Every structure is written in structure tokens, then in C-alpha cells.
Amino acid sequence: MDKLLPLDALFYVQEMKKQIVKYFLLIYLVAIIAMAFIRSILFVSVKNFPLSVEERGLVWEMFERGWAFDSLLTCYILILPIVFLLFYSFFTRNYSNKVWKRISTFIIVMFVLLLSI
pTM of the prediction? Predict the structure, then answer.
């Protein structure tokens, strides 16, 4: 196996960090959009229309608080895999497919549990 030059290793690490950040940001965005969609469907199915002027302000406040709550739960779910990858990166340079499959499985299971509640 060829040894990487220090400069090549630096670029490899920087590219890997970018991919990890993109991966977790994508998961965050998909989760927030999915939960906002579910909240919108619930709102439309429960609420009688048309809305009064007072209710419109409450609706926006409800969605803002919902976004904050969804964001908090999503961050709690994602922090464990991020911390795991941080510690794992101290012991190895390369992330195997097995590690990514386990992380993805954990995230999927946690979001399924979250959305089922």
C-alpha cells in the first residue's frame, strides 16, 4: 500500500470532513422537512378553515415552536453518531462501510421511533 504524502493526507482528511458534514446536514434537513410535513398534515386534518386573524398568528407560533422542538430532537439523535465518529477518528484514518452502515441503521431506527410516537 502506498504511503500518502503529508499534503495528500491533509487533503484526504479535509475531503472526508466535508463529506461527513454534508451527510449529517442532509439527514438534519430531511428530518426537519419530514417532521414539518407531518405537522402540516396533522394541522390541515384537524383544523377547520377559514382561519380568523387571531388564529393565523397562533399558527405561525405553533410552527415555530414545532420547528424548534423538531430541531432539538434531531440534534439529540445526531449527536451520538457524531461523537462516535469523533472518537473513532482517533483510532483510524479510514471509515469502513460497516461503520457507516451501523451509523445509518442507528439513525434510521431512532427516527422511526421518534416519528412513531
Answer: 0.77
